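Bump. Still looking for cytokinin dehydrogenase structure tokens.
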Amino acid sequence: MHFLRNLIILFLICIAIKINLCVPTIPSSLKTLPIDGHFDFKQVHHAAKDFGNRYSFLPSAVLHPKSASDIATTVKHIWEMGPGSDLTVAARGHGHSLQGQAQAHRGVVINMESLQGPKMKVHTGNFPYVDVSGSELWINILHETLKHGLAPKSWTDYLHLTVGGTLSNAGISGQAFRHGPQISNVRKLEVVTGKGEVVNCSEKQNSDLFYSVLGGLGQFGIITRARISLEPAPKMVKWIRVLYIDFATFAKDQEMLISGESTFDYIEGFVIINRTGLLNNWRSSFNSNDSAQASHFKSDGRTLFCLELAKYFNPEEMAIVNQEIMTSLSQLNHIPSTLFKSQVPYIEFLDRVHISEIKLRSKGLWEVPHPWLNLLIPRSNIHIFAQQVFGNILTNTSNGPILIYPVNKSKWDNRTSVVLPEEDVFYLVAFLSSAAPSSTGSDGLEHILSQNKRILELCEIDGLGVKQYLPHYSTNGEWRSHFGPQWEAFVHRKSTYDPLAILAPGQRIFQKAAPLSL
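Sorry for the wait, here they are.
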């Protein structure tokens, strides 16, 4: 009887220990920090979710800051606790990370959307700019700057992301061939370092920190404010799509368009695999130059390549813009019957992905696993890559958009932390897959992850010189390989600005309190 009772007690103790291991402990010292915002130690589950919907790590607390000072106070306190503390800090913007990068297991997640501070301020003049919070969404910046007839130069395809989030990676869209990524269009930052210091930095002030943070994956500081370059904003956009059967012709036309002074302001491409009634679907938004021929065009069972172009203009420029577009299009070698045009307001064009988001949310298809794979591929190897991937790996269908377009390396600043291929022109190839929950078929998570693995193995075996964009690795060796000759400088920057590896633990580059090794 005593044995049975002791066995039951032991069983209950084990359950209690297991539960305690699963529930993050709350550092009591956080409760007494002098901040204007507040900590939440109970409602923390939302901070363990992200757009990727594949990883979930519960933090001990979520900080809802009112100012950069609140963030600095928290980080400095953890810094002063020393290497004996396991606490880490992750900044979470709009939750659009893919693989838990903005999560902090048993650490502190900073809800950047709670951050208050000086209001967004637009400065006009010969060199216009806007000062914004690191927590501001790009869509809000667009709305505010348009009131002054201005807008940022470089974008991402999806605008409902925070400034701090995109600047910690790069921020790429179809304008990058001309203006570079978003990190090439920043003049100044306010940053909270891993020591809890609030530092203003720019090209001329604390420049090493400035370039470290841009594209730095959150490893060196939390962006709390940014100064973004602006340009005169157009009112309208000519939006054009044309199709190709042959990848070599498609790539040649893209590369021709991004060289020199292109007529177009936006150049992207995407891959279409076995899509039935493709051109008929486009007719709801685009007008065909040859409706009769387009109606007979068969897209099912084929792999096609779409070149997507945009020309910005104001209504009074209509005639000359139409002539420029006709001249540029005459130089292309697309399928003649597949020329589709549309004319939309500038803001509608830039926020086009949000329309898709609304539709997917209404069908319950937004909050599903997103096993995305984003690659930067040297121009010299893009044909080998395309032949193998679209000829052997992805043949019957795709589980989401596949973007593919070239950019000019000369528009990227090599002083930033972002890692790029070595050639002057490289392609962004983005497999933006969505997995059907609980599916074990070709639209299931495991199948998509298996395809991603095959693509990465191809790049490795064939030595294609590929770099991941929005990189994710599990081992120190993989990160070293990713950074290559930049690894030593990256580690040095980490030891300078976040020596205890407190920041951005979800990237899995450095382990807190572990020696930073070269």
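The chain has a mean pLDDT of 92.

Edit: fixed formatting.
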